[in-house]
Amino acid sequence: MNAINWKCSDEDARVISEIARKARLASAKHNFIIDQAKTAMDITAWHLNEAPLDLLALCDAKECDLLHDVLGIQRHISRSTGKRKRGNAHLFSPRYTRRAAA
Questions:
Q1: What count of Cα atoms within 13 Å lies in the side-chain half-sphere of residue 19?
Q2: Which of 52, 62, 76, 81 has the fewest CB atoms below 10 angstroms from its CB?
Q3: What pTM does this model have?
Q4: Quick one: pLDDT at residue 101?
């Protein structure tokens, strides 16, 4: 099994931290709590190991879209691989997945 890649740029780490902060605040408004540190780790792992995210757009997203992506990543990520859980390939795709250049 390959190790999870955690090596993101300082700027990506800053934006991911802000996304996790916004997600924590949004979740509290809806009477549930998410762990900000775990959220940042999940987003980082997904971004670097599964599918690159448009981090700046996600950070600026409407609350419902932000929570869709963050909660979906948390539900579908394998924390042992940093990738999508086996068998979940068709179940979830973040709205803010970075699109391939044409």
A1: 33
A2: 62
A3: 0.92
A4: 64
